[in-house]
Amino acid sequence: MPYVLEPKKMYYTYGGASTAGALLKWFKDNFTNGMLNSEGIIEDAAYDQPNAGAEKVKPGSDGIIVLPYFMGERSPIWDPDARGVIFGLTLHHAKEHVYRSILESVAYSMRHIIETSKFDITENSKCFLTGGVTNSKLWVQIFADVTGIPVVYSKENIQARVGDALIAGIATGLFKDYSEINNWIATPETVHPNTNNYAIYTKYFLQYKKLYLSLKDNMKSIAELTAEESVN
Predict the structure, then answer these.
(1) Which helix (H) or strand (E) holds 152?
(2) Of 198, 148, 143, 163, whose CA–CA distance to 12 is shortest?
(3) CB 83 within 8 A of CB 69
(4) What are the beta bridge partners of residue 21?
(5) How many CB atoms lie within 10 A of CB 231?
(6) pLDDT (tens digit, 9 = 90+) per residue, 184-215?
(7) Half-sphere exposure (CA, 13 Å, Cβ side) for 77?
(8) Phi and psi at residue 28, to the nearest 5°
(9) Alpha carbons 11 and 172: distance in angstroms, whole number
């Protein structure tokens, strides 16, 4: 795709996952009490309790792997019939395990996109995170540990609207170029991967990919069954 700031010089590729933060909202809506205020809006504090519990769970969530395909999936499998899966549950597991496995699943998804896109990962590579994910130090660390790449993020919750304002400012002549963004955000934080955790997650990531391939036909059959039921 053409890069919007320098369309004649720069291109970028990207992979879009269908579900990420929506998975956390789904979990909180169904498994966390007291997370809505009087207007029915999710409170930020509602994320603190499950995050604290998940921090005590080991990488790999004691054998749980989640396929985050709760709305089908785009990159890298391009399968609208894909379905969400919580695999490996035993009586030993609690909601903290499930919550952490959801966080891990989104990081697996990103690693899958990186792997499929064949990016040249070097010792100088970095992963830049923005949005709500940066509110969770645990999730940021999981992204670093799963991918094996240092994660850079801003303490401010930088999202698309900031880019919109920057582009509008350049287009109207208010700003000279995109370096103006450096005046808007604080010095970014860098989180480095834990090499031991990366080794663990690499083993789970292989199972993550195999699990989808094993269940792909089942997912298609379920999608067809539910489509038939909705017609009838």
Answers:
(1) strand 151-153
(2) 163
(3) yes
(4) none
(5) 6
(6) 887 789 999 999 999 999 999 999 999 999 99
(7) 27
(8) -70, -35
(9) 23
The dihedrals phi and psi of 43, each to the nearest 5 degrees, come to: -85, 145
Tokens of 68: 């985050």
pLDDT at 155: 74
Residue 1, pLDDT > 80, answer no
- What distance in Å separates the CA atoms of residue 134 and residue 136, rounded to the nearest whole number? 5
What is the distance between the alpha carbons of residues 164 and 174, in angstroms, rounded to a whole number? 13
Report which of 133, 160, 145, 119 is spatially closest to residue 23, judged by C-alpha positions.
133
Q: What is the per-residue pLDDT for 49?
A: 67
Cβ atoms of residues 146 and 100 within 8 Å: no
User: 40: which 2 tokens?
Assistant: 């029915």
Q: Please, which residues bridge with residue 65 across strands?
A: 87
Number of residues assigned to the chain = 232
83-94 residue pLDDT tens:
999 999 999 999
Query: Closest Cα to residue 131, out of 96, 112, 148, 156?
Result: 156
Tokens of 63: 């054998």
pLDDT digits (tens, 9 = 90+) for 15-61: 889 999 899 889 988 887 645 444 444 455 556 667 788 999 999 99
Distance CA 217, CA 221 (A): 6
Nearest one of 84, 64, 87 to 73, comparing CA atoms: 84
Question: What residue has token string 């089908």?
Answer: 72
